[in-house]
């Protein structure tokens, strides 16, 4: 739970480093919350829609967001950006590397960076975020 809510505690902190666990749990939380809010928007009639479809041999479910989804997405934009920058810092890359997300197919390089282990020990962006965990495990 600590890693899940860490980006909210460090809302607009673009300095330092974030572990893979913190980044991926944050992403999982945001995606799950967005899906739940899209469904809730549709159920409450707040502008979203939830519909199933079948056509051309494909069966699926289509969600679109409404007011709650929009408010949540706007509130999570800055902490999501900050945890992404800190994750790049952990692999010793500048936060400006995040601009690669704007280039089609090249943005897959970001995915590669996000799954890489962080730099062992200190780097130019701060101390190793894993260094403090050993004390908690063996204390």
Question: What is Rg?
Answer: 18 Å
Q: How many independent structural domains?
A: 1
- Secondary structure class reads mainly alpha
Shape: elongated
Q: Helical content, roughly?
A: 40-55%
Mean pLDDT across all amino acids: 86
Strand tally is 2
Helices and strands, in order, run as HHEEHHH
Uncertain residue ranges: 134-139
Query: What count of helical segments does DSSP give?
Result: 5
What proportion of the residues form beta strands (DSSP E)? Answer: 5-15%
Outline the biggest β-sheet: 2 strands, antiparallel
Give the strand order, joined by hyphens, for the main sheet: 1-2
* Distance between the amino and carboxyl termini: 20 Å
Oligomer: single chain
Short description:
The chain is mainly alpha-helical and about 140 residues long. It has helices at about 1-10, 20-45, 65-90, 110-115, 130-139, and strands at about 50-55, 60-65. The chain is built from five helices and two strands; from the N terminus they run H-H-E-E-H-H-H.
């Amino acid at each position: 739970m600590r890693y899940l809510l860490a980006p909210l505690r460090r809302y607009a902190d673009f300095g330092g480093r974030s572990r893979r666990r913190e980044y991926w749990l944050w992403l999982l939380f945001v995606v799950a919350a967005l899906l739940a809010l899209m469904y809730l928007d549709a159920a409450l009639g707040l502008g979203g829609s939830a519909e199933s479809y079948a056509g051309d041999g494909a069966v699926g479910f289509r969600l679109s967001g409404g007011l709650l989804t929009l408010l949540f997405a706007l509130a999570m934009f800055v902490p999501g950006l900050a945890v992404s920058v800190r994750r790049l810092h952990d692999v010793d890359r500048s936060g400006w590397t995040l601009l690669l997300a704007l280039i089609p197919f090249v943005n897959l390089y970001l995915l590669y960076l996000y799954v890489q282990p962080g730099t062992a020990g200190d780097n130019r962006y701060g101390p190793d975020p894993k260094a403090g965990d050993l004390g908690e495990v063996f204390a």
